[in-house]
Structure formats: structure tokens, C-alpha cells
Q: What sequence folds into this?
């Protein structure tokens, strides 16, 4: 089975490739010559995932899955949420985003947050979605050098380390994307 993963994020591809069974041939956007930026204009995480999956199917004809992920912080009324990648501006810089988030939180005692990933799958002219959530908290400073995005300031509930202090295997086991991909893989294995 061939499936396109609609992302240009090499870190996401690496995380997901480690979870997908070997009988599924995972193609990147580059593999199908999709070099343009796929629109992400919806106001929800689920909406963006669906929009990206449909874009690849409609414009390139490939069965596809796409994800969108957001960090939802309680004290910021769910922000940055759907705007996580561009929270500090259109440059989509992870360091800028973390700096802005830590400044916006300030000394707030409520550091509760969750990562949410929604995967939209277009396969055999059908659309399905799979959601993974990882609850945790925002640290007061960056810790660790692995991972990407907000990983250095997100500590999963009940653990001492941030995502950036974990191996890829550890993160995939408890993380939002790993949970969503596990649901996707379970579904694909039923076909």
C-alpha cells in the first residue's frame, strides 16, 4: 500500500516512519513533486488536517494522510492551538514561539497544557480522522535538545522530563502524534 504523508517537516516524517508498518510505503510530498505550500486556513486543528489531506487527493490523486498539531495551554484559553507553528509570527521559528509562550504565561501558576494531533486520512474515497492527546505542563525554561517545536518546554503529565529530553521511542510511546498514528495504523491493519 502506498500512502502520502502530507508534510514537509522532516522531523514529523522521521517520527511517523518509525511507527508505520513496513508493508506501507510512505511517500513524502517531495516524492510526488508537491513542492507548493499546502493551505492551512481552517480555524481548527481537525479542519487543517482535513484540508491538507483533501488538497493532496484532489490535486495529485494519491491516497494521503495529513496531520495538524497544536499546543493548547489552559491559562491562555487554549492558545496557541491551531496557530502553534506561527504563534510568534509567520517565520514559524520554534525558539521565537517558545519565548513568546513563556512570556505570555509569565509567572502563572497554572501551567497545564496538552498537545493535540489530528490525522486526516483520505483512502478509497473515504475520509477518517484519528486524534491523539498528551496532557502535561509547560516548564518555566527550556530543557533538552531532542525533538522539535515546543518539546523543550512541554513535560508530559506525571513525568520528570520534557519531550526534548526523551528518545524518539519514548516520545512516540506517550506522545500525541504517536497515539494518533497508532490509531491510524490500527485502522490500516483492518483493511
A:
Amino acid at each position: 500500500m502506498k500512502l502520502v504523508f502530507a508534510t514537509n517537516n522532516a522531523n514529523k516524517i522521521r517520527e511517523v516512519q518509525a511507527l508505520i508498518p513496513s508493508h506501507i510505503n510512505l511517500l513524502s510530498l517531495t516524492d510526488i513533486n508537491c513542492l507548493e505550500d499546502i493551505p492551512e486556513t481552517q480555524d481548527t486543528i481537525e479542519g487543517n488536517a482535513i484540508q491538507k489531506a483533501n488538497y493532496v487527493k484532489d490535486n495529485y490523486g494519491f491516497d494521503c494522510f495529513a496531520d495538524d498539531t497544536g499546543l493548547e495551554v489552559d491559562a491562555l484559553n487554549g492558545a496557541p492551538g491551531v496557530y502553534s507553528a506561527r504563534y510568534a509570527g509567520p517565520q514559524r521559528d520554534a525558539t521565537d514561539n517558545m519565548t513568546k509562550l513563556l512570556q505570555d504565561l509569565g509567572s502563572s501558576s497554572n501551567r497545564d497544557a496538552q498537545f493535540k494531533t489530528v490525522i486526516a486520512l483520505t483512502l478509497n474515497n473515504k475520509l477518517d480522522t484519528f486524534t491523539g492527546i498528551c496532557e502535561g505542563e509547560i516548564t518555566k525554561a527550556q530543557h533538552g535538545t531532542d525533538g522539535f517545536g515546543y518539546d523543550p518546554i512541554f513535560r508530559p503529565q506525571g513525568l520528570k522530563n520534557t519531550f526534548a529530553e526523551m528518545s524518539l521511542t519514548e516520545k512516540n510511546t506517550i506522545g500525541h502524534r504517536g497515539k494518533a498514528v497508532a490509531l491510524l495504523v490500527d485502522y490500516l491493519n483492518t483493511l
Observations:
- The helical segments are 10-17, 45-60, 94-105, 168-174, 176-188.
- The chain has one domain: 2-188.
